[in-house]
Design a protein that fits this description.
The chain is mainly β. Helix content is 0%, strand content 65%. It has strands at residues 3-7, 12-19, 22-29, 32-37, 42-48, 50-54, 62-65, 69-72, 77-82, 86-92. Strands 1-2-3-10-5-8 form a six-stranded antiparallel beta sheet, with no helix packed on it.
């Protein structure tokens, strides 16, 4: 059914589920800066709040707001900063 995940001492939490398009998670992040790793291509959509993201190979941060999506390649690390509680959906391909 559903699987819950918790990272960074509980500051990031998500629930995994299956969609028509494949596996996904919905989650929330508390204010902070995080480094995530990927094992698949990830389509991240901000659903509430905003995220500052620095993708691999980039030198500058880019801000994503509600309902904006960014794509993270497979087998990389990427940086995320949020200045308040922020929610997201991540689709794994």
């Amino acid at each position: 059914m559903f699987k819950t995940n918790e990272y960074f001492d509980g500051k990031v939490k998500s629930i995994a589920f299956e969609t028509i398009d494949g596996p996904a998670t919905v989650g929330v992040m508390a204010k902070g800066e995080y480094v995530f790793g990927t094992s698949t291509i990830e389509y991240m959509t901000v659903t509430s709040g905003k995220m500052d993201v620095k993708l691999p190979g980039e030198t500058q941060w880019k801000t994503y707001k509600e309902f904006e999506t960014f794509i993270v390649p497979k087998d990389v690390k990427f940086n995320v900063k949020v200045d308040g509680d922020t929610s997201y959906r991540c689709l794994y391909k």
